[in-house]
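May I ask for a single protein's sequence together with how it folds?
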Amino acid sequence: MKIKKILVSQPEPSEGEKSPYVQLAKKYNIQIDFHKFFKVQGITSKEFRQQRINILDHSAIIFTSRNAVDHFFRIAKDNRVEIPDTMKYFCINEATAYYLQKYVQYRKRKIFHGKQTFADLADLIKKNKNECFLIPCSDISKNDVPNFLEEYGIKYSKAVIYETVANDLSFLNVDEYDLMVFFSPVGIKSLLKNFPDFKQGEILIGAFGATTARAVTEAGMELNINAPTVNCPSMTMAIEDYINNSSKKKATPKKKEIKAPASSGENDNNAA
């Protein structure tokens, strides 16, 4: 199947001409449309209070994203909670740690950060295991952080402060795309919510990450393009690899079957 039109379930990249998607589109003469399938929405102060969590009962906070930072300080402000200077902050990476400058004086706070994953942050948390941690998160957050804290007997509370909801995609005609690309299970849920009668048919499905790939198959769809892999660490590389492999299959001529000539009675007699 030749790919002519792709739907990517994310906002359009900000890199402009330098975007791998733009380069892919130009190289193979493909139309690529970007539409974010879901949005982040903060919960209300009332909804937060219903969780019966007191922010000031905690001495440390674990931030796994900028969204968590924004909505935590919004909730604190809405509930008139003044965060003490003694509060410790543990951030998933350096970028998230620096983002805290939007709300606190960075140099005057106890801020720790990992390199990119929670595993990088785990050793720092173990060194501060006597703290009582608060995990501000979304309604679909993973359990790796709570599981780790429970394994080491560390006190914590998990507070849902924002949620992911499906965007309205009724303006889209998904059937006109040859390939749809997803980056989270939420994107799959949004697709099925917006188009409950969706049938994959000949549409190719691409997924980035193991959890997204699993969501595709659990939804009863066939996964055609998967990333990251050893050879294709990015989705654009995986798409290009699929295109090239498809072209090779078409270019390979089928071998003609050579049939042996039927034996005649005369030949049989001579052989005898």
Q: What stands out?
A: The CA atoms of residues 38 and 166 lie 4 Å apart. Residues 235-251 form the longest helix (17 residues).
